[in-house]
């Protein structure tokens, strides 16, 4: 678990992050979302001390990170960035093994870890002796994620991790990442300016503007119960698409009080995901489902507002 208490940062006397506090539980993904220059990357870099904060406290597993050296701290944190950052002269295997080597694991442990992570990221073991430039961008990003998970860190920081990928590879990796076994018990903080990505991947979203938190909550809370005009405006474009990516079949069942779902469909499926299912996998056709949603939308919004006040 990570707890951030009132951290701030100024550059040349201009505040760029102001009194930010949040916490991320194990198994939770918190997305830092906001316009360009709102302080997302600065916040992330203060956590692994690539930027030193001016004030405030950060605790990882209840330990005050100021008491650790930056080197000790970074070994405990997985870090994935948009430009991937693999070492070009190292093989794929050596790249993934960097942190386990630093942690002094034996050869067999490292072998097992590297093989397990490659399998988990759907990469063939034959890539192990290759250099990063011999892989596609999507494969390199998968290796970047594998490397971040290699030392079993409890915290993963991701800065626009899918930003450099084409839209199809990006969607594919987002989808896999959402269900990634190796990330299940980690606290994950992910920076993006892509609203749909934030909705799809975030358990919680922290929306920033000019270094100030505008709202922290579930995607549904931000979308349907915005704390202020900035939040409302931020989500006003593509509203329907965002709703379809946020509302699940389970939400509809709950509000209707009737279980209309097939037993073989996951109730956490979003309406957007349902739209892409083939006909044979669907109990209802999508148009009927959409009608049902709009018939119950107002009640659903009321319920979400009620729940976010509790
Ligand atoms: N080392 C630095 N020196 C001076 N100003 C900086 C430095 N790093 C960042 N800034 C400024 O701090 C502000 C916040 O930058 P930051 O990179 O955290 O924003 P961001 O929300 O991640 O933006 P983006 O989505 O464009 O990456 C910006 O105005 C930026 O110009």
TrEMBL record:
For molecular function, the Gene Ontology terms on record are: ATP binding; ATP hydrolysis activity
Q: Write out the GO biological process terms.
A: quaternary ammonium group transport
Which segments does the entry list as coiled coil?
none
The UniProt record lists the keyword ATP-binding: yes
Give the matching SUPFAM superfamilies.
P-loop containing nucleoside triphosphate hydrolases
Keywords noted in UniProt:
ATP-binding, Nucleotide-binding, Transport
Segments forming domain ABC transporter: 2-235
Recorded family membership: Belongs to the ABC transporter superfamily.
The entry's protein name is ABC transporter ATP-binding protein
């Amino acid at each position: 678990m990570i707890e951030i208490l009132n951290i701030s940062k100024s550059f040349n006397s201009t505040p760029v992050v102001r009194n930010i506090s949040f916490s991320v539980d194990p198994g939770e993904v918190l997305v830092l979302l906001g316009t360009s220059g709102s302080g997302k990357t600065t916040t992330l870099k203060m956590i692994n001390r690539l930027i030193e904060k001016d004030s405030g406290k950060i605790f990882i597993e209840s330990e005050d990170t100021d008491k650790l050296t930056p080197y000790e701290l970074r070994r405990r944190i997985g870090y994935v960035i948009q430009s991937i950052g693999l070492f070009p002269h190292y093989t794929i295997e050596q790249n993934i093994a960097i942190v386990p080597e630093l942690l002094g694991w034996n050869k067999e442990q490292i072998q097992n870890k590297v093989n397990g992570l490659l399998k988990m990221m759907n990469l063939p073991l034959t890539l192990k002796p290759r250099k990063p430039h011999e892989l596609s961008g999507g494969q390199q990003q998968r290796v970047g994620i594998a490397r971040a998970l290699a030392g079993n860190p409890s915290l993963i920081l991701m800065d626009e991790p899918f930003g450099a990928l084409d839209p199809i590879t990006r969607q594919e990796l987002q989808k896999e990442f959402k269900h990634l076994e190796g990330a299940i018990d980690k606290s994950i903080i992910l920076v993006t300016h892509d609203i749909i990505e934030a909705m799809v991947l975030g358990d919680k979203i922290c929306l920033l503007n000019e270094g100030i938190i505008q709202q922290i909550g579930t995607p549904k809370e931000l979308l349907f119960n915005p704390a202020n005009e900035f939040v409302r405006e931020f989500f006003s474009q593509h509203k329907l698409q965002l709703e379809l990516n946020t509302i699940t079949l389970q939400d509809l069942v709950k509000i209707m009080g009737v279980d209309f779902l097939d037993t073989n469909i996951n109730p956490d499926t979003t309406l957007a995901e349902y739209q892409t299912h083939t006909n044979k996998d669907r109990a209802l056709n999508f148009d009927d489902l959409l009608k049902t949603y709009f018939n119950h939308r107002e009640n659903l919004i009321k319920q979400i507002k009620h729940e976010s006040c509790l």
